[in-house]
Amino acid sequence: xxxxxxxxxxxxxxxxxxxxxxxxxxxxxxxxxxxxxxxxxxxxxxxxxxxxxxxxxxxxxxxxxxxxxxxxxxxxxxxxxxxxxxxxxxxxxxxxxxxxxxxxxxxxxxxxxxxxxxxxxxxxxxxxxxxxxxxxxxxxxxxxxxxxxxxxxxxxxxxxxxxxxxxxxxxxxxxxxxxxxxxx
Length: 184
Ligand SMILES: Nc1nc2c(c(=O)[nH]1)N(C=O)[C@@H](CNc1ccc(C(=O)N[C@@H](CCC(=O)O)C(=O)O)cc1)CN2
Ligand SMILES: Nc1ncnc2c1ncn2[C@@H]1O[C@H](COP(=O)(O)OP(=O)(O)OP(=O)(O)O)[C@@H](O)[C@H]1O
Hints:
Blueprint lengths: L2 H14 L2 H16 L2 H5 L2 E3 L11 H9 L3 E8 L2 E6 L6 E3 L5 E3 L13 E5 L2 E3 L4 E2 L5 H8 L4 E5 L5 E2 L13 E3 L4 E2 L2
Parallel strand pairs: 1-2, 1-6, 6-9, 7-10, 9-11
Antiparallel strand pairs: 2-3, 4-5, 7-8, 11-12
Bound molecules: the ligand Nc1nc2c(c(=O)[nH]1)N(C=O)[C@@H](CNc1ccc(C(=O)N[C@@H](CCC(=O)O)C(=O)O)cc1)CN2 and adenosine-5'-triphosphate.
Adenosine-5'-triphosphate (ATP) binds next to strand 8 and helix 5.
Family: Belongs to the 5-formyltetrahydrofolate cyclo-ligase family.
Organism: Shimazuella alba
Keywords: ATP-binding, Ligase, Magnesium, Metal-binding, Nucleotide-binding
């Protein structure tokens, strides 16, 4: 196995997921996150807006809003992740990869104040390493905030033994799936 093979298999798996498993998984994962002490303490969180059958974090976003946390989403600017505040779906627009992103009128969020980042992935391994779309966006972003708490989000089937990490790969602190918390 190599990175490209894992990527292909996992994307094929995600394509097959039905709506009920998707909704159930999102609920379970968001329920697990709301129980984490790091989530309770966090006042600023960077989440993602799901695409192509990624686990949806919408239930968590609503919980975070209710609790008065600052919720930001990545906006791609010059190929870099720039977190901007997410306050309403009406302020979203489609970015380069058809991902919904905050528009330029949304406030930029001070990355030093972010307490928790929920990270989408194509696969994760049991040591916390992440495989994404191969563009290195999150790895390059984490270089700017090495100490932030990084929580990978995935379906159980997306957990593999190794993703063959390279020097630039930055491991997660925790991975949450519908049925387990890995590395906790
Ligand atoms: N929901 C979500 N938001 C995110 C990411 C992500 O992986 N998921 N990103 C993570 O970096 C950044 C945006 N970069 C992305 C890079 C590639 C693709 C993607 O879906 N690529 C597919 C298809 C591309 C296409 O439509 O042409 C691919 O490469 O197969 C998505 C986001 C920040 N926001
Ligand atoms: N810190 C970094 N500085 C410069 N380039 C980097 C850095 N991290 C990763 N890259 C580059 O990004 C490319 C993609 O890396 P990798 O295959 O690990 O991406 P990925 O984690 O799967 O994808 P993504 O983060 O976009 O979802 C690599 O070719 C690598 O050289």
